[in-house]
Design a protein that fits this description.
79% of the residues lie in helices and 0% in strands. By secondary structure, it is mainly alpha-helical. The chain starts with a helix and ends with a helix.
Length: 238
């Protein structure tokens, strides 16, 4: 099998995987590896497919094969980090993502993954830096802006978190979770104001209840906004 044919098959495999057809993608990768057992992109995609289809042991073997052929394979470190995060090994996930971004410093997606893993460890200041790097690399990544707001809220900076959530809403009003999180940020801000104004701790439960209700109403409105898009996605193309 020639290089052109293999490259075509790999592109088809990536397209199948992106469209949610992991089985077809895996079959094509298998065909590529039958012709070229050391084909790193096919090995890596095969590892990804194994992990997402609950074949972690097979995925680990394939990933080790990738590292044996290319110890500096940045995307593979991203896959390793994902696998470790799923297992709850957050320290290991952070280390893998850090290695990945060192090898691929302009990969905004890896910076986001690193930030999320840091949030899992409550290392919110480092997570903030990772999300800001992702935004600097690609200002259109709404996911990075949402996670930045989460990191700011985790550092007890509700005013900045509120502003960040509002920026997400300005870009995508139906972004999942943003309205409820905005309500939580407003609640944290209101709680701080309640204490600062000397209203006493006794006022906090009432403030919290009101803000929670507002957050739930905002979340329900978000779901209502999201419903037409979901229904459209479920309809077959004409």
């Amino acid at each position: 099998m020639g290089k052109v044919a293999i490259d075509r098959m790999l592109l088809d495999a990536v397209a199948h995987y992106g469209a949610g057809r992991a089985m077809e993608a895996g079959t094509l990768c298998g065909d590529i590896l039958s012709a070229d057992p050391d084909h790193i992109p096919a090995l890596h995609l095969s590892a990804v497919i194994a992990f997402v289809t609950d074949r972690a042991a097979e995925g680990a073997v394939l990933l080790n094969r990738v590292f044996s052929l290319d110890p500096q394979h940045g995307p593979a470190f991203g896959t390793l980090g994902d696998a470790l995060a799923v297992k709850g090994e957050h320290e290991g996930a952070v280390a893998a993502f850090q290695r990945g971004v060192m090898l691929r410093p302009k990969d905004a997606g890896l910076h986001i993954k690193l930030g999320v893993a840091l949030c899992d460890l409550s290392r919110f200041d480092e997570a903030e830096a990772a999300f800001r790097r992702a935004i600097a690399l690609d200002g259109g990544l709404t996911r990075a802006r949402f996670n930045l707001a989460v990191a700011l809220a985790g550092q007890q900076r509700p005013v900045e978190a509120e502003q960040a959530y509002r920026e997400v809403i300005a870009r995508d009003p139906a972004y999942r979770g943003v309205w409820l999180n905005l309500g939580n940020a407003l609640g944290a801000w209101a709680g701080g104001v309640t204490i600062d104004r000397g209203l006493g701790l006794g006022a906090l439960p009432l403030v919290a209840a009101v803000i929670t209700a507002i957050g739930l109403l905002l979340a329900l409105w978000s779901l209502r906004l999201d419903r037409p898009a979901v229904l459209a996605a479920q309809c077959p193309a004409e």
